[in-house]
Automatic annotation (TrEMBL):
Class of enzymatic activity (EC top level): oxidoreductase
Catalytic activity of the protein: a 2'-deoxyribonucleoside 5'-diphosphate + [thioredoxin]-disulfide + H2O = a ribonucleoside 5'-diphosphate + [thioredoxin]-dithiol
Keywords from the UniProt entry: Cobalamin, Cobalt, Deoxyribonucleotide synthesis, Disulfide bond, DNA synthesis, Nucleotide-binding, Oxidoreductase
Nucleus recorded as keyword: no
E.C. no: 1.17.4.1
Protein's UniProt name: Vitamin B12-dependent ribonucleotide reductase
Cofactor: adenosylcob(III)alamin
GO function terms (MF aspect): ATP binding; cobalamin binding; ribonucleoside-diphosphate reductase activity, thioredoxin disulfide as acceptor
Keyword Lipid metabolism found: no
Start and end residues of each Ribonucleotide reductase large subunit C-terminal domain: 84-575
Amino acid sequence: MKQENVAAMSEQAISREVLLEKYAKGDEQSVADVRRRVARALAGIEAEPARYEAAFFDALQRGFIPGGRINSAAGTELKATLINCFVQPVGDAVSESEGGKVGIYEALLQAAETMRRGGGVGYNFSRIRPKGARVKGTHSRASGPVSYMRVFDRSCETVESAGSRRGAQMGVLNIEHPDVEDFIHAKDQGDLKNFNISVGVSDAFMQAVEADGPWQLVHAVEPASDAFPEAFRRDDGLWVYRTVRARELWRQIMESTYDHAEPGVLFLSQINRDNNLSYCEVIESTNPCGEQPLPDYGCCDLGSINLAAFVEHPFTRRARFDFKAFETVVRSAIRMLDNVLDLTVWPLPEQQREAQAKRRVGLGFTGLGDALILLQIAYNSPQGRQMAAKFAETMRDAAYDASVDLAIEKGAFPLFDADNYLAEPHCASRLPEAIKARIRQHGIRNSHLLSIAPTGTISLAFADNASNGIEPPFSWYYTRKKRMADGSQQEYRVEDHAYRLYRLNGGDVEKLPPYFVSALEMSALDHMQMVAAVAPYIDTAISKTVNVPADYPFDEFEHLYLEAWKAGLKGITTYRPNSVLGSVLSVEPAQAAPQDLLASQEGDPDRRIALVSTPSPALASLKWPHRPRLKGGNPSWTYMIEHDDGAFAVFVGHVENGHTQPFECWVNGNEQPRGLGALAKTLSMDMRCRDKAWLALKLDALAHTMGDRRYTLELGERTLHASSAAAVLGQVVRHRVEQLGALDMHADDTSPVMDALFAKKEPKTGTDGTMSWSVDVSNPQTGDDFVLFLKELVLPDGQRRPFSMWLAGSYPRELDGLCKMLSLDMRVIDPAWIGMKLRKLLNYAEPQGDFFARVPGSDKSQSWPSTVAYVARLLIHRFAMLGLLTEDGVPVENMGVMVPEQGDLFDSVQMETVAPVAGKPCPECGHHALIKKDGCEFCTACGHIGACG
């Protein structure tokens, strides 16, 4: 498959939804719209804006993805920072500054302002005196750093960041602090919910662990003598509060991390040893994601390049990576990130001064796992690590060389000192000699250039869900359940980019090649070794979460951290599912129940009660759950239908966004048959689907609606005949959507609604018949007087479901078409679908059609706007009686897809590869299934992607 075919792939539904929710502004409707805004904004400070706008847009189109804050705020009126994260100092004093560290409450105020502007904050709390230390001024004892962290925690909880982004925080305490044990266990009982926490570890401590030696817990402030009677002062002036066994302290860290994924471990000696600016700064903390070790007031100005976009001829012997094109994009990306430092709003002047003095940026990559798959290389193989190292080395060399070019043009960063900057063992000392010679001659614009961050939602929105950052794919596909504004849930099938490309290229996804290796199919050591392979080329750090299974042996888990230190890593984060974090609600197999319906399978397999494949839940197919609000309006097509009883018009509206999409129909005219407007209303929902086969099925069914009138239409070159206005509507709408090409099938088209039908045609009863539910309906205003019938069956899982409705008596015959439509909707396995259709009809009104009738399930009565609205309410009530919907028409349980436990009549299905995993409560769905995946919060129950870090 050639690379140009990749660009032709249609976007995933979830990618567009995330783009519109998180990044698009104003009238923006596409990735290209967002990229144009960002390119224009970042080029605006250049001497030649038009030239660089074109170059920047080209880089964005070819794979560069700026950080989330840049995509969401650049070029807008939002007064938010374009910088994702900061590190800020915290001193020991309550208010005044000491030794360059602001007091605790001044630090709190600065942090609140930073988070209000959209930035996350990291801190090292080690300066704060230990619990029990003397407070001379008040003759009291200190309460310790953990108590003050709670104040920061509550502040973060209260302050909502710009753009409705909740603030993120990293709290660090050094391993020698006397309160380190309290810090290790601070989150055991769910405290400090708005913090990630990490222990800052030195080489001296790790050596003491290896030797099983003693470890002194020390601080500059004297302890109260009665609290620590054995305390003494060392020669270096620090007070030794007590001495512990290093290995015992290390074991507490490991056990806590094993049980609930925190604290993380930062190898501060290695961080400072490798730092290009160790001659003028000390690093004590990182940003909340951990990929940016930063000094006080330092910031991370981030962006990532999608490696998968540079693979040509994927899955073939000719597969190759275009390193030349990659280098070109790296160079443009560095210039763009450098411009961010001059364009952004700075929450604090101290942050601006720090950034201007050093001009740190952090360019990384995403899609590593997918790029290797496209190249037919296994992530956990030596070849995979070698190729990843080559990607990182190429990126490093191009980035540093581009920064030298910027220094020639715009000047080096003010604190540049060539000899110290290039001294060993700094990352810059490992550059090729030619680049080092250029740096000595011209300087360099940016002190640091590289950082591999988690890419969470930007990968989903801008890279077709390419694998996150340095990670392998976590799963090949899963179902994302997203809560909508009206309380309902919309569901999406989310596919990994490489898997999706392989499937659309005709690959056998039932038996994937061996180079398709997911995160949970490889060992923890494989994950760590990939970081070790790439780390020598990255001048800040790498965010990576090592996910290990629940039964992973503790001894191996502990060994993993020791190996990470020995390999020269700057930190490591793991996640292991466990009972401490909570449990996922289990879905027990349904009890078998006798069937009261026998489907005729012999003559017509479409009447079988079965699902032949795992459906992508039907609601995921909706392009717009509600009528889209189009500020500029939309084009529509009109057709007049003439009849002896009068004339009425049919309208079909569409939008144009890269391709034409019809999305609604309606009828107009005083002589339109009653009930036809309701039929058009529910048909409009089907037109908003991404399921062409479903819309064709609906229109075919409608076109065969029988009635008591005769219509003859000249439509295009065809003469159409029909006996009902419903049939006319179906034929006219079908004519128009075919004109627009909306029913043309393509290779990558999916059928999420069709796949979710438990019967494509109405199941036929055996000789024993089936159950039905009936209600008398009478509207004196219109003369409607009929019986509503619902045929019902028991599915193999024991659940009773309506599957067909019809009317008998006096009513507008156009409602027969509505019965056909809603009967098909009832056979979508997830009741969220029929619930949505019925809720849309509750407010359907007719002139002089309102009447007073009893509320279903109640002794009260109320006025109803039409007969159709009352029928919709009756149907909702029946679904509520069966425990499928609430009386408001909202699903009691979001079923998603069928599961094998539902009986032998259901064909074998391949289930989602992400099984629910124990974790924290998810803010989206409420299940205890929120874990850390690829550095970001991820819900294994609903697919929600939350904070990274």
